[in-house]
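User: Hi! Is it possible to get a structure for several chains at once, not just one? Here's what I have:
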Amino acid sequence: MDNLDYIDSYFKNELPPEGARQFGNKIESDPAFAEEVAFYLTALESSGENAEAGKRQRFRELYQQKTAARSRGTVRKLVYYVAAAAVFTGVVLGIYQFENPGSGRQLADRYIRDHLTTLGVKMGGQKNSLQTGLQLYNEGKLAEAQAQFERMIKSDTADFTAKKNAGIVSLRLREYDKALRYFEQLETYSTLYSNPALFYQALTLMERNRAGDSDKAKQLLQKVARDGLDGKESAQAWLKRW
Amino acid sequence: MDSIDYFHKEDREIIDQLRRGGADRRRSEENLFNRFSYFIQEGIRKHALVEDDAFNAYSDTILAAIERISRADFQGRSSLKTYLYQIFHNKCVDLIRKKTTNKSSVHRSESISGRLLFISDTARSVIQKLIDKADWNLLRERLSELEDKCRQLLLLWGDSYSDKEIAAMLNYKTADVVKTSRLRCLDKLRKLYKII
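Assistant: Yes, the chains can be modeled jointly so their relative placement is included. Here is the combined structure:
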């Protein structure tokens, strides 16, 4: 223990110069002392290595914590990115749909929603078959309204309004072929000031959206726009966007 | 004015803390490790090392830097990042070249030679021969067998903490009490080591 104290003092530079000089001589002359010096240095190095191993272990833990935090952060970021992408996509789609409704089906849907959800009923007038049909239509009783208009057509095969409304209610009922048949019949009424036959045909084709319907609808809309027929404004607007 | 005065605030704090030593040194070592731990990814990407090798290269870098900064060998001629990256790069290159040198024995030898600078060549040679015969594994084993307090004292001593610093860290009254306790622990270790 005494020697360890002396050895420790030497390596901590705490010895006076004379003591430090004697230290080397003692190593050379005293093998037991030399062994103690060697042990002291070996123990010091070994303790240092152990301490270093402890630090490496601590570093590894820090790195693992950081890696785990980064992974959690990545997942969290991913969630944020996905959410942001979803919001962005929604906004883009919304704008796109608003500014550029895109497919003919979407254009047709919007037109039907805006213009054909209700049909004009003459207020205060005598309640006739047409008024009954329109009222049923506006109440959402589409099948009954269709039956009403078809009864009118049966009783008067030249009734333009009944055919027009029968076509519209068929369109709402997604009976596209029937709707087309009614609207095609309207074409024959060439003397009427206002005849939406071609426009409604185009609308029905857009809504039906079968192969070839889109091209055919476009051609009809072009004719409506070119000839200034009923539905010209909508046709022109759609042709620009579509 | 010290060159490190111009350093990034965080770097300056780490360097100051490491130079000051004391109880905060451990925290500053961890801060230093965390500060540039992205080097590990660079080791993987730029040097094509596996993650474990890149981690070891980085840990070696930090340990070397801690030692140099604590000894004030780092003079701040380059930024801390540049300084560390140079060490890290060399460590990675060593790994790539698959140097098989037993680094701990080389390090030990250098470290011990450094401590024996002021004794005669003959005395140094005597000590070196005795150390070469030492059973390092056994000593490490015996060290682990010491009671916690003793082991802790010796590990802090091995980690170059002064007795004064150890006193503050382990709540000893004075540095002298630490020295007495430490030497007593060292004596216990020697007795354990001698019983073979």
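Chain B has three domains: 3-96, 102-134, 135-191. Chain B has a mean pLDDT of 87.

User: Great, thank you!
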